[in-house]
Amino acid sequence: MHVRKPTIGLAAVLTVTFSLMGGQAVAAPSTTAPSEVADSAVAARVFTYDASGSAEFKSAVDRGAAIWNESVDAVELRPVAAGQRANIRVLADNGWPRALPTTLGNGTVYIGRQAVDQGYNTIRISSHELGHILGLPDRKPGPCSSLMSGSTAGTACTNPYPDTVEKAEVEDNFSSALAGTGGAARSGVMIVD
After folding, report:
1. Is 36 helix (H, G, I), strand (E, B) or coil?
2. Which residues are catalytic?
3. What is the three-class DSSP state of 71?
4. End-to-end alpha-carbon separation of the chain, Å?
5. Peptide bond preceding 101: is omega within 30 degrees of 0, i.e. cis?
6. Contact 142, 176 (CB under 8 A)
7. For residue 86, which of 29, 50, 127, 169 is within the disulfide window of CB 3.0 to 4.6 Å?
8. Burial 175-192 (b: 16+ CB within 10 A, else e)
9. Segment 134-182, tens digit of pLDDT
10. Which residues of 79-116 are buried (b: 16+ CB within 10 A; e: fewer)?
């Protein structure tokens, strides 16, 4: 599980504040590894999802969101609060699973019963389709270890976790988006599977 560390930024703010107030601030020696400093430099972007239309797949959607929260630091997916508009709508229907990203971190996911009826794992479907909303393309054909290989891994594949490359790509998508250097999802393009 990834833990976000806001304490480094707090120490920097306090140091600057004391120096501006005319006091003397002395930097304490850092006990944080450079990689942890880089990881904590950008706070997670929070996106909400509404699974109220996902019918019998609600628990799979919640688990798929939790898997992304465990897997990456740049994004946090939370259920939407009552009366608020969600970034991501999740719906159940009788078609094939698909995603319609509008912008990075926003869009609609369909958990299609057709794939479930054929034996595909609901949590893997949920994680996979949320991966599209987070900017990942399909990677077909592919092995079961690749979440974005989708249905090409077969019905025996139940792996709902992104691999190292997929995690890094999501981290980069949101780091780039925050820096204004790209990271955009394919807006308005329906991604089936």
Report:
1. helix
2. 129
3. helix
4. 27
5. no
6. no
7. 50
8. bbbeeeeebebbeeeebe
9. 999 999 999 999 999 999 999 999 999 999 999 999 999 998 766 555 5
10. ebeeeeebbbbbbbeeebbbbbbbebbbbbbbbbbebb
